Amino acid sequence: MKQIAVVMILLNISYGHFSRTQSVDIDEPHTYTPPRHYFQTSSFDEAELEADDVAKNPLDRGPYFDISASRNVTALVGNTAYLNCRVRNLGNRTVSWIRHRDLHLLTVGKATYTSDQRYQSVHNPQLDDWSLKVLYPQQRDSGVYECQISTTPPVGYSMMLSVVEPITTVVGGPDLYIDTGSTVNLTCIVKHLPEPPPVIQWTHNGEEINYDSPRGGVSVITEKGDITTSYLLIQRARSSDSGKYTCLPSTANPMTVHVHVLNGEHPAAIQGAKGLRSNNILPFVLPLLLLLLMGLRTFPVR
Questions:
Q1: Cα(242)–Cα(221) distance, rounded to whole angstroms?
Q2: CATH architecture of 1-7+63-165
Q3: What's the whole-model pTM score?
């Protein structure tokens, strides 16, 4: 009996030591903390995520979105647009894109699920990116798009696409009247571009303006920003400076203005003469009217 009691005591001591060893292994803290800008769904509050997930290993928490990129994308009409969605720890889940306007499913994985083939899914495995590619976007394509992970329940990350059409205007157009000897100031304004146009070119009657020509007194000043403005200055205007001037932004539509350098004329008189010259049928109509009047006098109505 004493021998049995000694064996039982030894077993209890060994079991207790084994239990304590296992409890230490289970409670051992993780050494990796995910970056603060990673979270699982756009609907979660970051403070809640820190409290719940700060001690979790990312491999244990499932898929989540990297929200370091901008949620607002601006694209130019006709130029391909990309909505970038970066998903970490995707595993065997899939990524889909949904258009909020009509809740239309656009892509699932790499496949397009809409008859509009302008929408395509582009996957970059090195960066964990699932981008929605929109070919030839139009202004009607503007709106909210959601990148969605097929978890249970699904989680999504929304982005705003703004498709804009650039507008080019020349202040005071389409006709400008300048007195001889005055300074011509043509102001070209370009709006609604994602970034300023690299180059704005000016032409006179279809030919590029040479700012170093012997004529002199011709210069251009361009201010770039959200709204880009280009000023064409022509000092001591003369009659040869009259004609068609076109502002040509490299990434926007051109705009033309007609400059009339006056040599004592009145703008109304120039417009009247211009109207007469453009009416080519008038020289033929006047003789016919005269013949008709003469015929009525020769043959009076009975």
A1: 21
A2: Sandwich (2.60)
A3: 0.52
Per-residue pLDDT of the chain (302 residues; tens, 9 = 90+): 555 544 454 445 444 443 433 333 333 332 223 333 333 333 333 343 344 444 445 445 688 888 887 789 988 888 899 999 998 888 889 999 999 999 999 999 999 989 999 999 999 988 889 999 999 999 999 999 999 999 888 899 999 999 988 899 999 889 999 999 999 999 999 998 878 889 999 999 999 998 888 888 999 999 999 899 999 999 999 999 999 999 999 888 899 999 999 986 655 544 444 443 434 444 554 555 555 656 555 555 44
How many of the other CB atoms lie within 10 Å of CB of 105? 13
Which one, of 152, 82, 65, lies nearest residue 123 by Cα? 82
> What is the second-level CATH architecture of the domain 167-262?
Sandwich (2.60)
199, 266 Cβ separation under 8 angstroms: no
Is residue 6 helix, strand or coil?
helix
Fold agreement (1-7+63-165, 167-262): yes
**What sign does the dihedral 160-89-109-95 (CA atoms) show?**
negative
Boundaries of every domain in the chain: 1-7+63-165, 167-262
Q: Which residues of 37-72 are buried (b: 16+ CB within 10 A; e: fewer)?
A: ebbbbeeeeeeebeeebeeeebeebbbbbbbeeeee
Alpha carbon distance 161, 81 (integer Å): 9
Q: What is the DSSP code (8-state) at residue 87?
A: E
